[in-house]
């Protein structure tokens, strides 16, 4: 029955089974996978940031996502919206620099759009909520795609997510790589002017890790036996 509902519910390809297949456990597993990816790639993120920033992006992101996984392991909320809201608050309180408020806003706004009551949400609802979270990041930072920021990965990912989680992953990775030839127009990197050209934006790189972890979590869920 669960598989039938997934087929009838119009969930995008690559979504977990079930038209309302995203629950709190899914979000916890996504954020745990994201934390593992950040931990694994922290040195690379720091190297990217050393070229055009403060050389602390990897360390800051590692500290923040370790705090997120620790908090969620202690007392995970029961709904996906509540998990995201808690994760966002944790990032704001533990990540230094601009990354904490920006990533915290992304998760908190996404969670706020989902609400704290629904135990499961559809992939379409999640895609709409994430788009709102990405828009909130743009409003907070005063940035747009092309400014050489995390939005260069997040905006195309949010636009592709209604198609599938893997389409979002591909869009995020491509968007992050596309920051290399850009001249930074926002953030500390913008102070370098033309010297920012030729370097990948570290925020876009970490955003691509987050979206990649989401796609991998969705693929694992889709391949799991139905409950």
Sequence-ordered SSE layout with sheet pairings:
Layout: H1 2-8, E1 22-23, H2 24-52, H3 57-74, H4 80-94, H5 99-114, E2 120-121, H6 123-141, H7 151-160, H8 165-177, H9 202-222
Antiparallel strand pairs: 1-2
Helix pairs in contact: 2-3, 2-4, 2-9, 3-4, 4-5, 5-6, 6-7, 7-8, 7-9, 8-9
Protein name: Dihydroxyacetone kinase, C-terminal domain
GO molecular function: glycerone kinase activity
GO biological process, one term: glycerol catabolic process
Which CATH C-level class is it? Mainly Alpha
Q: What is the typical, i.e. mean, pLDDT?
A: 89
Taken in chain order, the helices and strands follow as HEHHHHEHHHH
What's the CATH architecture name? Alpha Horseshoe
Distance between the termini: 10 Å
Task: Tell me what the structure shows.
- It is a single chain.
- Helix content is 65%, strand content 2%.
- With 227 residues, it is mainly α.
- The protein has one domain (20-218): Serine Threonine Protein Phosphatase 5, Tetratricopeptide repeat (Alpha Horseshoe), CATH 1.25.40.
- Helix 2 runs antiparallel to helix 3, helix 4 packs antiparallel against helix 5 and helix 6 (123-141) packs antiparallel against helix 7.
- It is globular, with a radius of gyration of 17 Å.
């Amino acid at each position: 029955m669960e598989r039938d509902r997934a087929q009838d519910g119009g969930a995008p390809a690559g979504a977990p089974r079930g038209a309302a297949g995203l629950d709190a456990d899914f979000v916890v597993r996504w954020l745990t996978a994201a934390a593992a990816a950040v931990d694994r790639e922290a040195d690379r993120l720091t190297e990217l940031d050393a070229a055009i920033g403060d050389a602390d992006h990897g360390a800051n992101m590692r500290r923040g996502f370790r705090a997120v996984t620790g908090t969620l392991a202690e007392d995970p909320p029961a709904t996906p919206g509540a998990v995201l809201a808690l994760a966002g608050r944790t990032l704001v309180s533990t990540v230094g620099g601009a990354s904490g408020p920006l990533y915290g806003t992304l998760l908190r706004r996404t969670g706020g759009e989902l609400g704290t009551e629904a135990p499961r949400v559809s992939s379409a609802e999640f895609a709409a909520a994430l788009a709102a979270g990405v828009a909130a990041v743009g409003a907070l930072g005063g940035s747009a795609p092309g400014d050489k920021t995390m939005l260069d990965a997040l905006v195309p990912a949010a636009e592709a997510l209604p198609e599938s989680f893997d389409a979002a992953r591909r869009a995020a990775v491509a968007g992050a790589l596309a920051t290399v030839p850009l001249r930074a127009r926002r953030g500390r990197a913008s102070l370098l002017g033309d010297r920012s050209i030729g370097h990948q934006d570290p925020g876009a790189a970490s955003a691509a890790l987050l979206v990649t972890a989401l796609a991998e979590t969705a693929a694992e869920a889709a391949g799991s036996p139905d409950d």
